[in-house]
Structures
1.
Amino acid sequence: MVSKQESLPRGGWRIKLQELHTRRKRAVCLDNRFTSPKPRRARIALFLAAVPILLLFSLMMGPSGIGIPDLETASGSAIFSLRLSRLLMGLLTGAALSASGVVFQALLRNPLAEPYVLGVSGGAGLGATISILLGASLALPLSLPIVAFVSAVLTLVLVYAIASQGSGGQPSVYSLILAGVIVSAICSSIIMFLVSSASVEGMHNVIWWMLGSLQPASPSQQQVAALLVAIGLGGAWVLSRPFNALVLGRDMAHYQGINAGFVITLGLLLATLLAATAVSLSGMIGFVGLIVPHVVRASFGPDHRRLIPLSALGGGLFLVLCDAVARTVLAPVEIPVGVVTALAGGPFFLIILQKRMKQAWIG
Amino acid sequence: MAHDALSFRSVSAGYSHRLVLDRVSFSVREGEFVSLIGPNGSGKSTLLKTAASLIKPISGSVELFGRSVSQLKPRERASLLGVVPQKLDAPMAFSVSEIVMNGRVGSMGLLGRISTQDHDLVERAMIYTDVLPLADRYFGELSGGEQQRVALAMVLAQEPRVIMLDESISHLDINHRNEVLQILLNLNRERQLTIVLVSHDLSLSAAVSDRLLLMHEGRLAADGAPHEVLRPELLGPVYDCELQVRPDPYTGALQVSGNLEGRKLAGSSGLRTHVVAGGGSGIELYRRLLLEGFGVTTGVLNELDSDAEAARALSITSVLEQPFSPVGPIAAECARMMALEADAVIISHVPFGSGNLVNLELADDALRRGRRVFIAAGLAERDYTDGRAASRLLESMTARGAQSWQTMHELIMKLQQQPS
């Protein structure tokens, strides 16, 4: 800048100064400091910096001892690759569940919405139970996740059809929630009945599946699941602006030029896809999809363009850490990860939400 | 020829089981400031929703600048028409500037960046509506009036050519209401913005609007300049009450007022009425007569009848007979005495049969003794007595000066006239 000014002809000084002045003036006008988002940049940076550290920390935890295993030995590299693939399972499942929770909470405008609200858990659970008790899951390698996924999607279709009755094709969010809760309850009852009349071994298998675990699935299943989660997350992120508008209600979003019915239907489908993928991958892990979105929203704001990726990352990280605790604390016994999520995560998140309840949800 | 900004052509619309708009036709030219007035439930909000294509018309067509609303893409519609709702609800902790930025969502598309122009439009809208100082506050924490201004800023940022406001300014304090109206008037004059304001404040609507549209039971009851629409004989039947319209002595602006002002001074009229009702036909009568300050008695009614329940709830002195029984001699005599103590006897839209013909006879008796009697019109259709005794009695009573009434408003007017 200085050298430029020095090279100016003498008479140009005044003009240059004036130009500088106007340029600065324009700069003030253009910086839009009133409406530019004031991102919680520092906080987000801190969070992003913590992610690799915490992931590394979880790699060091396991029933065989704390620390990075010796990669030179065969057993050491096997342990490490097992931990790594559990980490990937955790990231995938946690990201899917918590992004799904974000979308459900936005579209249903309800703080209690979670990935399983439209009957995904009930449907997937029923499918999986039948598959386990009939022994099909042992006979065919991929049948359990496929059955769980298909029955979850079928349940959503059923719930959507019930909720649409008598409302001219566009179900209200309340009828969706009610239909979801009722279908879930019916599915749960049938599961209870099947389990109670099953053999001890069958019962054990079903309950273990329902508690959820991050035992690595087959590579092909992981790849398919990763693809589906990527589709779900990407799709949800593309819709994040309409989601913001829909928080103000369906009517207002419509007035602002959003095809509200289309966005709601597509969003529900994507969220269910995420939830069903997570369930088919790791069973029913609770709590992540309900609470992580609230905590992320309370910490980083409700704008879905940031909320969806940050929740996905936060949910994945949270589940990975819970899994590290689950397999280490009582080693060699492994606690179901679904137990740890609420038991360890509950108090931690309660403290955060206590302080920032207002930022999480104003109702 | 320039197209109208908004036109309704014989539009009928409603919800699944209820028709709300009944063949409504009107048009609004670009740059007009129009107020939509009418009592609660007359279809104003439905009309707005139909204009914004939130409700599809059952028949007829709605056009925005000559293009059918239902065929416009959502984005195009939003660039032509903005709606400020009665109340905006944001359950999550969005800041005010984030909310206003939502006004640009339609034109930004899914992945487009927020441009400098978007920021400028948002800032300008926030400055106009005086919500810039609130930019970083959470929307959910603001007062109702502040939220309304934010909602208006959001719709202004949308840059539509027509803005519809659904009773959006009724919650504002007088300062901000005038400010918001001033903003709307300026936009209307300088940028030819077309404005449709739904309002319950008739005087205010008259002051700011070029034209008033008066809605009544899903139809357009009147359409014209304020002084053409704000006439007591037009408003009275629509609002079903007595209204006065007079120019303000200083400004000449039309002022519409109900008859509440004089009420405190005048006190109750002191007139006593006896109501003959039954089967629920008397509830509205009791309510209005008590509200207008008349003394009310009623009978004979059957116990368990909904009018009997209402009379008890309103502490109205009443003569009761056993449930589902014809009126007996003792009850009839009591009611006769009661009717004679009143200044006027009012017969509701109650059907007459052999069981309660006595009630009409006691009115006849009161008429003979110089009381005024008002009979709801159309009694002949409600006559189930043998040999049409009630209709014959009606004819003879009418000949002797019994009056007929149709609407509550008309009845109250007649009651308040001094007997000649």
2.
Amino acid sequence: MARALINVPAKAKRGEVITIKTLISHVMETGFRHTTMGVRIPRDIIDTFVCTYNGEEIFRATLHSAIAANPFITFHTVATESGTLTFTWSGDSQFSQTETANIVVE
Amino acid sequence: MKAARGTQRLALGVLLAALATLCSAAEIPLSERRSGYADLGRETKAMQDDDTANPGMLSVLEGEELWKTKSGTEVKACADCHGDARASMKGVAARYPAFDASRGRPVNLEQRINICQAERQQAKPSAYESKELLALTAFVAMQSRGEPIAPPDDARLTPFREAGRQLFFRRQGQLNLGCNQCHDDNWSKRLAGNLIPQAHPTGYPIYRLEWQSIGSLQRRLRNCMTGLRAQPYEFGAPENVDMELYLMWRARGLPVETPAVRP
């Protein structure tokens, strides 16, 4: 399983804009490279990232071959209620990984 | 006539030797030494400073898991002997390479980890620059973050450090350049648009954006040698370790930054 780092504030005030940072280890092999023997290295990238907040989708990104290895995605949302943020990365060769983070909204 | 020319040639030789001594004495004064971090862009600095944005931390996390994983015929984990790395490994990376009495020469942190794997765990040592070895090294080295680089005061290391110093000042490759010509004499100037750093190994293993991965100091040294169009030394070669030893001595006092991020 790939290693992921998620930074979500543990606590926030209702209505506050919070920053969410995510980092996941992935080679992001472009599919355009060849080995020294001339064999094409098959594409192996993460193509979709989705974040849900208590089940509701709040952020989605489509990734392509030009994204560097270990993609770092950061975005903002409004802290509305206490609950769970779920992060899912999926891509080539049935790659799929889900991580969660909890937030307390006061 | 012949004798006169001989004298002239001798004089020129003496002059050149004197010049060479002058040049080789031009090391950067301790007060002017600074880490490559100081010359990073704002975004790269931010990336290194935030542990949840620093991609080197992915490797550190993996190393932490390996630290606790039992392996080898002894079925021992690093943690079984060394306990909590936060306490036992603090400051270790700041004083490596260190002298290994049984080998009669200095070993760097990667080699020390490999020796431990082979002799204490009776496990297959990791290949140089393998993901596992880099992860363990990054995890161990991170425990020294913030500690000043403190090369051991060990007389047995002196000849090896001197050999490393000779390498640093030796002109090599098709470009016929010594490391010192860029990193001692022309740091802070630009080479094809890139800033020339002082080349202090403060944050190894580093996450280099150009590599899109974490890599060791020897990988960096080999890179530089290829740049000079010289034949790089193999990973783990004594020459590379000597060079590491000299570079760490040259960077003495600067804080360890592992895992550092560099462009």
